[in-house]
Design goal:
Keywords: Cytoplasm, Methyltransferase, RNA-binding, rRNA processing, S-adenosyl-L-methionine, Transferase. By secondary structure, the chain is of the alpha/beta class. The protein has 12 helices and 9 strands. The chain has 2 domains: about 200 residues, Vaccinia Virus protein VP39 (Rossmann fold); about 70 residues, Orthogonal Bundle (Helicase, Ruva Protein, domain 3), CATH 1.10.8.100. The longest helix is centred in the C-terminal third of the chain and has 15 residues. The protein is elongated, with a radius of gyration of 21 Å.
Length: about 290
């Protein structure tokens, strides 16, 4: 059996042997608990037919387990210092491919063309500083992923799965993720299982990618502009938020008509509307603008 990378002594040994000083700016915190990695693997529901894209593999703690369960792993690492370490640590796995690139800029289409017709999942312990941008990129570009499983800050995880009943946790991120996927927190992760230890706890989030959105939208861009406007100033009424939003440029009379058409009280706040109500409202605005 291969030596486990995900434990404190091995992680410390690898870092010291390679003279690695971790960069806080890149959110480099490595998992050192195999039980947490197993929870991630279970959430991903890996099969021997799956291709897995991993973002931020670091020294390979999670990559090792992914390689043992998947058909192939495509690990995208920004820090070139770790490419050599990954190649050494995982030299006995012939199904792992390393890509030195920034996942926020990487051309996923180039890789996905090679994998056309295959089952593709994203599984990652995401660096905290790119959590929201990378999740939104993976979803908005409508790439052919079956499932996305990521470990993120617990606070971000709670925002991802939030509903209007969850108060301040609920926002544009919650709505966008729910539009593209079915999100679920599958486990919480204490800060103590990382090296070095971050200041916050984490959580594992599973996003099952939808074949199509759960709502019928007439103009997707308009829907997200309406959502963005509603949450820019949370305490404002939906009427004021939309009529004063620079990204919409709507006259107050039109906003009133749109709200009235779908029976939304003008004094309600956007944070009280779910995806279905936002969709009805944006469709109403679309009809009035057409």
């Amino acid at each position: 059996m291969e030596k486990r990378i995900a434990n404190p002594s091995t992680t410390r040994e690898i870092l010291e042997e390679n003279g690695i000083q971790l960069k806080k700016s890149l959110g480099q915190n490595f998992l050192v608990d195999r039980n947490i990695i197993d929870k991630i693997i279970v959430s991903a529901d890996l099969t021997s037919y799956d291709h897995v894209i991993e973002i931020g593999p670091g020294i390979g703690s999670l990559t090792q387990r992914l390689a043992e369960g998947a058909k192939a792993v495509w690990a995208i690492e920004l820090d070139e210092r770790f490419i050599k370490i990954l190649e050494e640590n995982l030299s006995n796995y012939n199904n792992v491919n390393f890509i030195q690139a920034d996942a926020l800029e990487y051309d996923f289409e180039q890789l996905l063309t090679k994998l056309s017709g295959e089952s593709i999942k994203v599984v990652a312990n995401l660096p905290y500083y790119i959590t929201t941008p990378i999740i939104m990129r993976l979803l908005e570009e409508k790439l052919p992923f079956e499932r996305v499983v990521v470990m993120v800050q617990k606070e971000v995880a709670e925002r991802i799965v939030a509903t209007p009943e969850d108060g301040k946790k609920y926002g544009s991120l919650s709505l966008a993720v729910r539009y593209y996927s079915q999100p679920e927190i599958t486990g919480t992760v204490p800060r103590t299982v990382f090296m070095p230890q971050p200041k916050v706890d984490s959580a594992i989030v599973k996003m099952e990618i939808r074949d199509k959105p759960p709502v019928e939208v007439k103009d997707e861009e308009l829907l997200f502009k309406v959502i963005q406007a509603a949450f820019q100033q949370r305490r404002k009424t939906i009427r004021n938020s939309l009529s004063k939003a620079a990204n919409l440029d709507l006259k107050r009379d039109l906003v009133d008509q749109a709200l009235d058409k779908v029976d939304i009280e003008s004094r309600r706040r956007g944070e009280k509307l779910d995806l279905e109500r936002f969709t009805a409202l944006s469709n109403s605005i679309f009809d009035l603008l057409s």
